[in-house]
Amino acid sequence: MARKLAVIGAGLMGSGIAQVSAQAGWEVVLRDVTDEALARGTDGIRASYDRFVAKEKLTAEEAGAALARITTTTDLDAAADADIVVEAVFERVDVKQEIFRTLDGLVKDEAVLASNTSAIPITKIAAATRRPERVVGTHFFSPVPMMRLCELVRGHKTSDETLATAREFAESVGKTCVVVNRDVAGFVTTRLISALVVEAAKLYESGVATAEDIDTACRLGFGHAMGPLATADLTGVDILLHATENIYTESQDGKFAPPELMRRMVDAGDLGRKSGQGFYHY
After folding, report:
1. Residues 267-282: pLDDT tens digits?
2. Is CATH 1.10.1040.10 the right assignment for the domain spanning 190-273?
3. The CATH number of the domain covering residues in 4-180
4. What are the binding positions for CoA in this chain (predicted)?
5. Is position 48 annotated in a ligand binding site?
6. 96 annotated binding-site participant
7. What digits encode the pLDDT tens for the residues 11-36?
């Protein structure tokens, strides 16, 4: 099986994908546009490995060996010999298309090009390449080292072979896969959480119930590990707003139209845990 992976984007998702892949024995090149971003990403990986060692889920030797399998670079050309490339950059279709267009001219013919997008149709991203049959969605969940799910998304032209390679990769790094056979915006998981968050935010906005009570209802009534508004704060209110807007733009389905409150929260910088204030105060 292919063992050389390139991850494009060293943010929370990209560094997490690099971490679990290196731990599973893959040789990983992690690429971002600045050395500072790469340093933040590798610091996060190192800290995560240290926590696993402290909990005795990894030995110090295993953590050191995994870390040694990750190399960092600001040069996209470093992806040229990768068997699989996973893109994990900001959720903007033009940014992703530009990366895939460049990768298309760099990587070997048999390489699989994957996107970690949570809401943008894979077909749109694949259209920037001359090999749409080799493009697939590999939607990991945050935090990647802890979350077991990977949503595999088949674009309009994704081949069976490409889907099988993506599954083999995701399973090799310890993930359980679900397959999205029709490339609808938001796939399965982002459509479900977006619809729930939008409705929860509307209930909160209109004073029907407090954020705490809405989340408690979902936790105790439906068995959710975390309520939708706490989930929005963890994910980032801006990230979820962007995802719901993408789905609404594609589907024109009113249930995905984000409420005014979410837009104003983002305008004000109340983005959730990362800013100290969202639906809750941190």
Report:
1. 999 999 999 999 999 9
2. yes
3. 3.40.50.720
4. 48, 55, 118
5. yes
6. no
7. 999 999 999 999 999 999 999 999 99
* C-beta atoms surrounding 252 within 10 Å: 9
Q: Are the C-beta atoms of 100 and 114 separated by less than 8 Å? A: no
Which sequence spans correspond to the domains of the chain?
4-180, 190-273
Annotated ligand binding at 274? The verdict is: no
Q: What is the CA radius of gyration of the chain?
A: 19
Note the pLDDT of residue 163: 98
194-217 tens-digit pLDDT: 999 999 999 999 999 999 999 999
